[in-house]
Structures are given as structure tokens and as C-alpha cells.
Amino acid sequence: MSTRLRFLGVAGYEITWGDKRLLIDPFLSQSPAAPVQPEDLDPPDLILVSHAAFDHYGDTATIAGLTGAPVVCGGEVRAMLMDAGVAGDQIRATTWGIVTELAGIVVRPVECHHWSQGRLSDGQFVTGVPMGFIVETEPGIRIYHYGDTAIFGDLRLIAELYRPTVGLLGCAQPAELFAQVPGPGTFLTGEMSPSEAALAAEFLGLKVAVACHYLNPAQPDVLEFLDLVPAKDSTGRRIAIAPGVGSVVTVATDDDGETVTVTTE
Predict the structure, then answer these.
(1) Cβ contact 15:5 at 8 Å
(2) CA torsion, points 147, 111, 201, 152, in degrees to nearest 10?
(3) How many whole angstroms separate alpha carbon 14 and alpha carbon 247?
(4) Rounded to whole angstroms, how far apart are CA atoms 182 and 260?
(5) CA nearest 234: which of 195, 205, 209?
(6) If 0-12 CB within 10 Å is exposed, 13-18 middle and 19+ buried, where does residue 19 land?
(7) Residue 254 pLDDT
(8) How far apart are the first and last CA of the chain?
């Protein structure tokens, strides 16, 4: 069996394996580079939302409403989804450490150094705890989604406890979305710089480090990430990938679950 990861842009991924389909942070209708719109997606078995930022929460309410798919998220995202008309019994609120199984998919929320704030239709702000996620799709393929975290030392503890093999790691800030984030000054990095993201791949002990949080894979910080991953790799075997939006990364293992192969289309 193999696992397919379709990059939807920014931090969005559609992950499929066997008969399972998982959607993470589906930011589509407001994206200038989305490869698909919410109504065109195949119905997911489960949706994960890392936090309430517009480019991560995205079209979750629309997709959940169209498909009836359950959602795993934090309490603030649950409030936003219910405010948008999604039934409360369709949403499982969780946080770091509370492992959940829905639709036959085991979801492990993990620590994320970020913030999460959204707004309800009455203007009220809601805040909560952002999350990263680990999902094992098959023996030897354990996918870590960074959830917009900054780098922190306990990524090493996540590696020791849960041994992720594939990491979706933010290394950039999508320049195409700057106009949607009002305020003075200029963003110089994303939540992790390319160097920090490459070091996070080392902390996590990944076999495959996948760039995340961009729309243009030729963006300079994405290219820098690809250069720095091997420079910080103590194993000499780590694979670094920066897929284009809409591209599919296929990850497979050998019979012992140890050797990972990667193809991109």
C-alpha cells in the first residue's frame, strides 16, 4: 500500500490511503492558486483543522456542510463551525495529547507553538489552542502536520515518542496573501524560517521533509529550505520535497516498513 498526499496550497493537504481520505486545513475558495474548489472535492472521511487562521480554517465549514464529514479541531474552531451552521455532533474538539479515532483514522494532536483566534458572526472573538497532528496511514508512514508551529526543542520529544517519518513543515510565508493580513511592517519569515524548518526536520528525525505554507514552490525561502535540509541531516538520507500546488506526493515503504520511497506527480 502507498499513501498519496495532494498539496492544496498553504498548509492544505488531501491524504489518501487504502479506502481512507483525510483533509487537513482546506484553504481553497480564497486562494489564488487552489487546484480545486470545495464543491469539487471527493467527500473526505475526516477533516482536521489545526487552528482558526483564515488560511488554515479555510473552507472547512462549507466542506463539512456539503459532505457531512466529521471534523477534529480545537474548541475555538468548533465554535466557529457551529456559528457557520455545522452541527455540534459532527465536530470533535480536542487538544494536545487527547488521541481520537474517527472514521477508522487515529489522530494524535501534538504541541504547536502558535496562536489561534477567529471571529464569530456577531463580531465576538474566540481564541483557542493550535495543534499539530500525527496520523499513521500504514506501517512505516507516520505523517506529522506542523499546524503552523514555530520551532521548539520538544520536537525532539515528539520524535522519541511517536517517530514521524513524513513531516509537512512550514518554511515560508505565502507572499500572495500578504494583502489579506492588514497591519504595518513587512513579514520577513513565516512561523519557521527555512533554516529553522530544516532543523525541525532534524529534530523530528524525518525520512521525508515536505515544505509547506506557500503557493509558489519557486519562492526563495522554499528553495532555501530544500538546500538546508540535507545540510542539517545527520543521517545523510533525508528526502526534501517542495511540491507545486495540485501536485501529488506518493510515499511507500518496503515490506519491513523501514525503507521509504517517494515519487511526485
Answers:
(1) yes
(2) 110
(3) 11
(4) 42
(5) 205
(6) exposed
(7) 82
(8) 17
Locate 178 and state its grid cell: 500578504
* β-strands 141-145, 132-138 pairing: antiparallel
How would you classify the pairing of strands 91-93 and 71-73? parallel
CA distance 10 to 14: 12
22 backbone dihedrals φ, ψ, rounded to 5°:
-120, 135
pTM score:
0.97
Q: Which of 152, 61, 161 is nearest to 113 (CA)?
A: 152
Average pLDDT across each block of 10 residues of the chain; the chain has 265 residues. List them in order. Answer: 95 98 98 97 98 98 98 98 98 98 98 98 98 96 98 98 98 93 92 98 98 97 98 97 98 80 91
Q: What is the DSSP string of 42-65?
A: PPPSEEE---S-HHHHTTHHHHHH
The β-bridge relationship of strands 125-128 and 132-138 is unpaired
- 4's grid cell: 498519496
- The sheet with strand 208-212 has its strands ordered as 100-102, 105-110, 132-138, 141-145, 166-170, 208-212, 239-241
Could you tell me if 132 and 147 are in contact, meaning their C-beta atoms sit under 8 angstroms apart? yes
DSSP helix/strand/coil, 254: coil
Q: Which three cell numbers stand for residue 70?
A: 466529521
Rounded to the nearest 5 percent, the helix, strand and coil shares of the chain are 25, 30, 45
**pLDDT on residue 257:** 66
The CA–CA distances, whole Å, from 73 to 16, 34, 213 equal: 20, 22, 19
